[in-house]
User: Fold these one by one.
Assistant:
Number 1:
Amino acid sequence: MTKRRNCPLCKKPVAQEFQSFCSRGCRDKDLLKWFGEDYSVPGEPAMIPDPEADGLD
Ligand SMILES: [Zn+2]
């Protein structure tokens, strides 16, 4: 009944602990792929205008 799936990245048989991937490496890679493609990582704002710095010389 249990359908065996293969890792979408390297086609190895998946490991149960990694659900649909063969290893943590492939799982992470897939996650990173998704994050890299469609999500822009919020990260830190590069420049914040600081009102208090204005005019202080
Ligand atoms: Zn894999």
Number 2:
Amino acid sequence: MFLGLGWLVFLTFGIVGLYGPIVRYGPNRYSINDPHAAKTIYGLGAQFAKSSWYSTWGPPGRWTIFADQNVHRHAQNRRMYQNTYSMSSLISYEPYVDECTDLFSDRLRELSQAGQSVDMGRWFQNYAFDVIGLITYSRRLGFLDQGEDIGGVISALENHLTYATLVGIFPWLHPICHFVQNRLLGGERGKGREYVLKFTLEQMAAFKAAPKSMPSNVEIEQSETVVESFLSKFQSKHSSEPGSFTQYHIQVGCAANMVAGSDTTAISLTAILYYLLSHPASLEKLRKEVDSSFQDGKLSTKPTFKESQSMPYLQAVIKEALRMHPATGLPLERVVPPGGATIAGRFFPEGTVVGINSWVEHRNTHIFGPDAGTFRPERWLDADSDQLSLMNRHWMPFGLGSRTCIGRHISMLEITKLVPRILRDFDFAIVEPIDSSKGIFNTHNMWFVKPSDFQVRLGLRAQSSQ
Ligand code: HEM
């Protein structure tokens, strides 16, 4: 069991283990651990709206794509964003990701030469923030350049996570707490999400004032293949459909990228590295795949997304690490619609809050087998087609159904390009001796299950491409 997980995850695991598939963890709130429940709650056509807990993830009284509790409005809005986030559209951003992986590798090289240990969780977040900045505004925000929290936005995000997670339990407090936090305590810039929103608006204003004055290196080097940023795409959509895709939609889209686009990817990258370092046999197997792909010319110096798709063990490791450590660690709460619903053999009337915690689902032995609690990437390669399809249906690091993560392809692009490259070029060793039977990996759960101070020592590999 991981140390330091938030009380809700612990409570859910512990009690589910002891008391069966339905756990009441608050008034009218139930966490479900039953292989049939996912389809009922999140399945196609299910009309289970998000619970009031989500209201604190946006400004009081206004919708955001992530927090919207209105099923119909959410579906309408989501359709308008969908294309921009599709995999086919995201492939064009590979040069942006390469630009950041180059810089990330440079930084790791410097740090390895300095012989310092490194908080890899933080460096992965610097990487993810710069990628999302480039994709959103065609501008690297400078996290990798400076190696620090630019504009204090990472700490503002941490503040937002704590606020939204805790105030969300008493959502009627949100308008008051939001006022106190931002108007009385937060100064001119506000705190938490309000601060991140100001940061977002500044980036948007800078882009609007001088879109051409902030090229990334990619645009300088490959001036014929200028990649259109999300912001530019949002603006074009607004120009052609000003009535339905408003200025507010542009703001919500950019803010969502800032809020959801860095922590989650960084957590997932950290989990992948942690599980590999604490399972040397898996690391060795993946290294062999990476090295031989590189030597056979099947993996470029800057690995492409397409190349990474032909590396089965890499794909299995990513899936398995995200199964063991999904970035969100609370039940994905939904409200039972009119007519009620029978879940795990029990009838829940309309208005009951029910949800599945991906940490619980991912350790269900009826789905993932008797060793569900063990990191074993081979499960994704050895399973027969029925077993594989069962596991895939219940693999939910990105959520499930109509509210599934809209940004997942961005993350997968970043992860699948970065992991083979750093494994090829660097050696990593966890600074504290690690006992994988206890799984010592300190985390903090405020919706995102964030690793804290994951210190790693770096070395350059002989295999390194540079
Ligand atoms: C490995 C990385 C990521 C993980 C594990 C992750 C996880 C999730 C999960 C579990 C949900 C569903 C939450 C729920 O049902 O309550 C979600 C929704 C969402 N994610 Fe992600 N996410 C990741 C990356 C991103 C990125 C890069 C972006 C944006 C650039 C993003 C934007 C969103 C948005 C806007 C939603 C709400 C979608 C909706 O309600 O329609 N995520 N994410």
